Amino acid sequence: MRHFSLLRLILSLALTATFFVGCSRDSNVRKQKYQESGQRYFDKGKYREASIQFSNAIQVDAHYADAHYQLAQAYLKLQDWPRAYQELVRTVELQPENYKAHIDLANLLTAGRDLKQAQEHTDLLLEKNPNDPQTHVAIANLLAAHADFPAAIKEIQKAIALAPDRADSYTTLALLQMRINQPDAAETNFKKAVELNPKAMNAQLALGSYYQSRDRFADAEQQFRRAIDADPKSADPRAALARLYMAQGKKAETEDLKIPPAIACLAISISLPAIWIRPSLNMVPSTKIILETCR
Question: Do 141 and 273 form a contact (C-beta atoms < 8 A)?
Fold first, then answer.
């Protein structure tokens, strides 16, 4: 009898273990499917749909760090900064060595003027991840927020040395050079960024804005039209061209673009790196001109 009871207990435990293993496997499959679906939406530029799928993956497994990070990326694309910050914080809690998340946090905190906390992340990155060009870009952003532009330029140059084919670094270098009144050097680097990645909208718009800031309106118009050709579906270059026409008082040309003035002004927030967005931050002259035009 005891032998029979013992055997029944062993079988019961085995069945229970099999049930939990099956549930665990099922949960892993479900969260992975949500994650893969979210990534497909993300790759297509459907960031709202992507955020829903990444959130579904997290509902299956709240400790799924990859889903938290990708959800943060979707929120960054949607410019939902508070939610992006929350998800990035959760990511580094679960994956302390996710240096991409630390970089994103440093840049978000810098843009939000929480410079002390931003430096905690850049200090960690410099110690643990010094050979990543993005580490030096984040440090440059922080130094620029402190108005230490020469030091910021040195950091960007380190980023370029590590990854000479990365277009965004040249755009950032050019913006910094504008801050120390080196417009010729800035133009060279704006053009270099466009040359390296003709489809990089930030580089295209930054070059056009540079021309506008120098009153080279014909060059600016041509550059914004190139940006439209590079991405015909994007509203950003059309909004930039509308701003150019608004600055020149060309009402008919502005109306032809069918871009409402409020949208044209709002688009400045996505045409340049985060550190240059807020009016309270030090911005390149072209950005100041555009913002004044929009007021």
Answer: yes
Residue spans of alpha helices (H) in 61-166: 65-77, 81-94, 99-111, 115-128, 133-145, 149-162
Measure CA 158 to chain center.
20
φ/ψ region of 181 (left if φ > 0, alpha if ψ in -120 to 50, else beta) reads: left
What is the tens place of the pLDDT at every residue in 22-35? 545 688 999 999 99
What is the Cα–Cα distance from 160 to 124, expressed in whole angstroms? 21
User: Which distant-in-sequence residues (6+ apart) come within 8 Å of 185 by Cβ?
Assistant: 174, 177
d(CA 82, CA 191): 34
Q: Who's near 109: CB < 8 A, 6+ residues apart?
A: 115, 117, 118, 121
Look-up of token digits 């040359």: 195
Amino acid occupying residue 27: S
Q: How many CB atoms lie within 10 A of CB 281?
A: 16
Interval 88-139: pLDDT, tens = 999 999 999 999 999 999 999 999 999 999 999 999 999 999 999 999 999 9
How many angstroms separate the CA atoms of 68 and 105, rounded? 13
Residue with tokens 């240096």: 99
Single pTM value for the model: 0.77
The span from the CA of 58 to the CA of 53, in Å, is: 9
pLDDT (average), residues 208-235 = 91
Cβ-contact 41, 15 below 8 angstroms: no
Cα 295 from Cα 229, distance rounded (Å): 28
